[in-house]
Amino acid sequence: MAARIRRPRARTCERCGREERLDDATGSWVVADGTGEVYCIHEWDINGSFVPFEDGPTEA
Known about the structure:
HEWD, HEWD domain-containing protein
């Protein structure tokens, strides 16, 4: 069985507070609330605690 990979649904910049959400229709990130700083090199709050693989049934 193939592993299913999931993406984060939302992210927030740790530097300027910009919030974005994943748009299912386009498959890309869109600004949710507040644009943050225009010239910020965004540092997203997605880190090693996010697990991109869904747990699924294992084959015996």
